[in-house]
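Hi there,

I know you've been waiting on this one. I reran it after we fixed the sequence typo, so this is the corrected version. Both the input and the resulting structure follow.
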Amino acid sequence: MNQENAFLPHVIAPKLLKIIESQTPIGKFYKKATYMSLKNEPGSLDFTIGDSHEMPLHGFVEALQKNAIPQKIGWYGYKVSLPETKKIVSEALKKHRGISIVPDDIFMTNGTIVGLAICLKMLVEEDDEVILNLPPWFGYRKMIQSVGANPIGIPVKPQTFDLDLEKIADSITEKTRAILINSPHNPTGKIFSASTFEKLANILTEASKRYGKPIYLISDETFSRIIFDNQECLSPTQFYPYSFLVYGYSKTWMAPGQRIGYIALPETMPNRPERRSLIGQLQGLYFGWCFPSALMQYALEDLEKLDLNLDKLQAKRDRMVTELQNMGYEVNIPQGTFFLLVKSPWEDDGAFAELLATNYQVFVFPGTPQEIPGYFRLSLTANDEMITQALPKFKAAREEALKIESKTGS
């Protein structure tokens, strides 16, 4: 160890250093994947993450410009959760989701990630366990580890991508403190049903009674407005009282760099006044200033009126599903989110992603670092021109992969 590294444990708390140095599947991926360095080359077609490759929604910039003009002294002073902003969220939950949550039980955050972090910090103690469903959103493991807890991964059912309720029930122990649910599920696009949530609620209720303490449900509903085929997307918080609804708007607006979201408590949650106080303290003290910017809160009334063109997004989904299937790919048809999950022609999905990148300049997210080996993920936030350019490359890459496989016999 050189002299600089020798001092590192004394600069960074040992516990935090251990978490930083621990390798999640996604961390290992970013360290070893050579093609990530090629993403910004001219002619590259990047389908890896949810950044939009089109201009912002009509009205988005205008909403920010309008509300950026100060209307009184202190317009840009410190702002917590503004009452008028919480009222807008309450009305939007009723309109879009059929969920009744009073403004006092809504806590504005600067995005979903902070909302999840606050819930975990409030609920979880050292060596507790938090159940998450595999494949997870790739940040969940680190978030759970950062509060000293152990993530317990339970794979979804391989054919349907539904929650494996039996395995979830079997995984609950006296150390289980929470379960983290994501519906629509990233990366599978699965929307979990009312029946599934009812059964999950019964499992959690029975286990809470058995161990003499509540097991909480944290519901990440980031994609709850990005739904295809006019399907219904229910919140598990409507079925289980000890639950937290966490949402972020940036995916709905295709503007992930503009952060505003919230934590909401269902009206069935016990002891809500105490929880309101705790969340407020964590937002203002523990993590820093975890409220959205004043501008984003002022603009929310106008931004709530914007509609993502779901028909256009669904048309891109349908086009890519049809074209890829015609090429011979196995494609999961997502019910929500803006991702497609595609079966890799090679068992080693990372190797096929490298082939796409190095030989065809098409970048996809391999399944192994997302804990769903044998697949790769595509983002439908690509524009139509990118899709047109990429489709023949997907076909050529599959044909090349099958030729290589037949020659090597692997």
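Quick highlight: DSSP finds 15 helices and 13 strands in the chain.

Best,
R. S.
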